[in-house]
Specification:
The complex is a heterodimer of chains A (about 250) and B (about 325).
Chain A lengths: L5 E10 L2 E11 L4 E5 L6 H9 L6 E6 L2 E2 L5 H7 L1 E4 L11 H11 L15 H13 L15 H13 L5 E5 L7 H14 L4 E5 L3 H7 L2 E6 L2 E6 L1 H6 L1 H8 L8
Parallel strand pairs in A: 3-8, 3-9, 6-7, 7-8
Antiparallel strand pairs in A: 1-2, 1-4, 4-5, 9-10
Chain B lengths: L3 H24 L3 H25 L8 H16 L5 H23 L4 H21 L9 E2 L14 H24 L1 H18 L4 H27 L1 E2 L6 H14 L6 H23 L8 H14 L3 H5 L9
Antiparallel strand pairs in B: 1-2
Helix pairs in contact in B: 1-2, 1-6, 2-6, 2-8, 2-9, 2-10, 3-4, 3-8, 4-8, 6-7, 7-8, 9-10
Classes of the chains: A alpha/beta (about 250), B mainly alpha (about 325).
């Protein structure tokens, strides 16, 4: 079997007395969708922030695509092929959808100390950006300022910006956050279509989405992985039921 | 990116500036030549600040430092009898670029209120350095000759200096217009909107912000060199934090992040400073020096109700969605 694309060893992170990540070991295989679920405050977003380089872990190692990236900055990890989407929509609200994606393209098209040619009419940025917008279903919304897009569209744009960095792996932090059932269904189908092309770490609250997409699931509680397994295994795991799923009105059968 | 109405306002502004000398000369109001020259100098300073303040979201409270540096480059060289304009402006540009690089490299490691305070503190250090330089007049300042560029182009002819400043203003605004719409400009604006996101999509943001900081400081250094020529005098007052605040107010009045607005903001601030005290004196003797008393509330109203400044109030015809 090929080496995993992402391997996390003994990751620890605490804020003062609060332990956000505790001795976490974690792997994502090539082409796999590995979901991370857990109750609020389980440390999911903190985990993603450490993977994307926005937070430095207190200890532990992150190996991506065969290289130790633990000490790399967020932009350097983006260039290594690790792309992150955000739980709280963080598209550039004053820019058009096209400009948002074009900026991602630009970040991966050499340096940006080009100060004279207008970026807005730069076909080298706009053409690939439009292709990606079409791919996520926003092809006819390219000229709309991001702030004026519907919430679901902003979430799609969020993913488009991650895809535009030509990543090897996607870190998706709740791609369906705040979405209605229809939009959630659409994003789920879209992500299913990307399966195999990109390895994915999927943080998600919507259990239908998780069980529809994930090859494996890791359950995080208080920063610790209490179980990892296939969806079938996780459904059957008593500890998981007790710690997370059991008491809530979540239909996992 | 400019709508037609705004383009008309912009062209009108340039035409008015260009017509001031002949009209003022014909009517014998020569005073307006130096007033508008001063407006244009501060317009350059305000436009330069807008790059980092309005577009980059870096609230630098120390922009007067570069105004002073540019002015002292001219003043100190002139003090030693070196009046060659090319050399003076080269030193003004290189000096303010270097200092902006150092100040920026320190300050840009911080964000928010810390950034404001540290830019303020470092600028005040330069101010007190100016005061302590007894050799160059210290507190009292330093008289300076005007720069000499070409034998046929005598800056002691007020009109020549005036048009030199106008050319610099147009150049600076044009350069800034290109810069903010370039790839580099998109990065600077993106950092303002969401720096974490910029890093997540792969931009090492620090180097771009620092470059913008240096460009901004350098352009303000040019304004300083022009100011020294205009006043034939340099003083640490050019670097006082109050001056930084004035430049910031010009940007706010004109409209942050509008590029052209701050140039008009400079005009409005300086015309207000010129005319309103006279009006107040006419109403009640001895009140003129308190013109800030009127300006302050107007500024508050403007900031509250017209967040995009006066430039934002110029109607947009045919504006696209958003």
């Amino acid at each position: 079997m090929a080496d995993p694309i992402l391997r996390v060893e003994g990751l620890n992170k605490s804020f003062g007395g609060v332990v956000a990540t505790q001795n976490l070991d974690f792997e994502v295989e090539q082409g796999e969708i590995h979901a991370v679920i857990g109750p609020n405050g389980a440390g999911k977003t903190t985990f993603v922030a450490q993977l994307s380089g926005m937070l430095k872990p207190d200890s532990g190692r992150i190996v991506f695509d065969g290289d130790d990236v633990t000490e790399l900055s967020a932009p350097a990890r983006s260039h290594a092929g690790l792309a992150r989407s955000f739980q709280i929509t963080s598209v550039f609200r004053n820019f058009t959808a096209l400009q948002n994606v074009a900026l991602s393209i630009q970040a991966h098209s050499g340096h940006s100390f080009r100060m004279w040619k207008p970026a807005a009419t730069d076909a080298a940025l706009n053409d690939p950006a439009l292709d990606i917008l079409k791919q996520v279903g926003l092809g006819n919304r390219a000229g709309i300022v991001a702030a004026n897009l519907a919430h679901g569209e902003q979430r799609q744009l969020e993913i488009a910006m991650a895809l535009a960095t030509r990543p090897k792996m996607l870190l998706l932090d709740e791609p369906t956050a705040g979405m209605g059932p229809e939009d959630t269904q659409r994003i789920t189908e879209f992500l299913a279509g990307l399966k195999g092309t990109y390895s994915m770490l999927l943080i998600e609250h919507d259990m239908d989405t998780v069980f529809a997409l994930a090859d494996r699931i890791t359950v995080l509680v208080y920063g610790q992985a209490i179980a990892t397994g296939t969806p079938v295994e996780i459904r059957a795991n008593d500890e998981v039921r007790a710690a997370y799923l059991g008491e809530e009105e979540v239909d996992i059968a | 990116m400019l709508t037609r109405t705004k383009l008309i306002v912009l062209i009108a502004g340039i035409v008015i500036c260009a017509l001031v000398p002949p009209v003022a000369g014909a009517t014998g109001e020569d005073f307006y030549i130096s007033l508008f020259a001063r407006i244009m100098v501060f317009a350059i300073a305000a436009v330069s600040l807008d790059l980092i303040l309005g577009f980059g979201g870096m609230i630098s409270f120390g922009h007067a430092a570069y105004l002073g540096l540019g002015a002292y480059a001219v003043g100190i060289l002139s003090f030693y009898g070196i009046n060659d304009g090319f050399l003076q402006f080269f030193v003004a540009i290189a000096g303010s670029a270097l200092v902006a690089l150092i100040i920026g490299a320190i300050c840009l490691r911080t964000r928010g209120i810390y950034f404001i305070m540290i830019t303020l503190a470092l600028t005040q250090m330069l101010y007190f350095l100016g005061i302590s330089l007894d050799e160059y007049g210290g507190d009292d300042g330093l008289n300076t000759d005007r720069s000499e560029f070409f034998a046929w182009f005598d800056l002691y002819e007020e009109v020549n200096l005036y048009y030199l400043i106008l050319v610099f203003l147009i150049l600076c605004v044009f350069i800034m217009h290109r810069v903010i719409n370039s790839r580099f400009g998109m990065v600077v604006r993106g950092c303002h909107a969401n720096e974490d996101r910029m890093q997540a999509i792969g931009f090492p943001t620090f180097r771009y912000k620092l470059t913008a900081f240096v460009i901004s400081g350098t352009m303000c250094g040019i304004a300083g060199a022009l100011l020294a020529n205009l006043t034939e005098f340099v003083t640490p007052e050019f670097m006082h934090w109050f001056r930084s605040g004035e430049i910031m107010i010009m940007v706010l009045v004109g409209g942050m992040g509008s590029l052209f607005g701050p140039a008009f903001g400079a005009a409005i601030y300086l015309l207000f400073e010129e005319w309103v005290p006279d009006l107040m004196e006419a109403v009640a003797t001895g009140t003129g020096e308190n013109w800030h008393f009127i300006f302050g509330p107007l500024l508050v109203i403007l900031v509250l109700f017209a967040k995009q400044g006066l430039w934002g109030l110029v109607p947009d015809r045919g504006r696209r969605d958003g």
